Fold:
Amino acid sequence: MPQAAAADIEMRLLLEAVYAKYSHDFRDYSGASLKRRVQHALLQLDCATISELQSKVLHDPHTFQQLLQILTIPFTEMFRDPGYWLALRQQVVPLLRTYPSLKVWVAGCATGEEVFSLAILLQEEGLLERTMIYATDINPVVLEKARQGIFAINAVRQHTANYQNAGGKRAFSDYYSAAYNAARFDPDLIRNVTFADHSLATDTVFSETHFISCRNVLIYFNRALQDRAFGLFHESLCHRGFLGLGSKESLDFSRFADQFEPVSRRDRLFRKA
Amino acid sequence: MRVAISTPEAVEAAAARRIEAVVLGASAGGFEALMGVLKGLPSTYPMPLAVVLHLPEGHDSKLAELFGYRLALKVREARDKESLQAGTLYFAPSGYHLSIETDRSFSLSCEERVNYARPAIDILFSSAADAYGKSLAGILLTGANYDGAAGMSGMQVAGALTIVQDPATAEVSTMPEAALRRMTPDLILPLAQINSLLQRLGQTS
Structure:
């Protein structure tokens, strides 16, 4: 199939071009999903071929920003997988409580739903005051959205059940004010949050942390890049620090498998061994 | 939609092909249909099989358990980055798209729904076509939506063996009919004949 082969070559060249010009490294992302995103981009950005897209991206930074929005997948919700948050509350928080001050890293925070979920949980557990949260992503547009803390009201209402199942202690609506079709979360929740541009593919560790939450980010990486990310987490976490992953993610196929032990395997909470 | 069942000659030709992996898609009525297609396949079956069966999202699926009780095949939920193993039937986890990478390992994703579905049959089928090309067999069964039609076309372009359940025998014919409007598969068969073809492919492959 010469046509398929040409598209494969174009894909490689596009990713090299993006890396060389903009330092965003998608070369070790999982191929199948990346191919779908790029096909989606061809339609959205009105390009007949990947080569045409590459040319536009190289000569027009605005097109690259549009491509970046399509390549990164900001699908997330508040208190997604309530079991994770409940286990975090019941099994990890009691140990985090023993530290005089806490540093937490939400890696790949996208539009901020996880950050606000975590801030709410820490507030209810009396830990928010003494916690510094680093929320990082490679996409500046979603980081800005996360800073705003404004989410669609319908989505937030749907996530109310998540909050309750996650062991929430109040009415979820206590945390936001609704106006028009939006829910604006209390900005006080994120007064100790630093939003920052950080890439698990190209950047290094920036701080020691006690807990890292990185959910449904690593599934978009190939094994080599997953290992790079686990390496960063291992380096960043303090002695016996905690790591939370997405509900279908694991360390099983990683070379870091034996450097973490499960706190709750079912809920994907791990601890540095 | 009335369609002709494939001839014995067409089935013979298909049974002689060398196949390295099987992907299946099913929706409404899919549990029984899958049981009909997979029953009797031995634990020594020489290929991996991967399935997307649509279910309501939001609770962890028990599909692997349910099928594991009833089949000789090893049955598991597919895990991110796991390599596909022969003799194993993999189910896409609830709420995630399932893809097969060109290194023949699985990857999961939370991309938007396709045909209102996540997991989507189209995504499994298209990615499997890229990974296996003509050594792939793809089977589309009963269902009440249009998922899988684009994936079947993609598999056909890649030279895969394409099989659609005879809509007249499907509990819900919408999904097989949607595929048949879009492409002409190698075979259109009722469940029992798809089952015996899979048995034979296991002997030749």
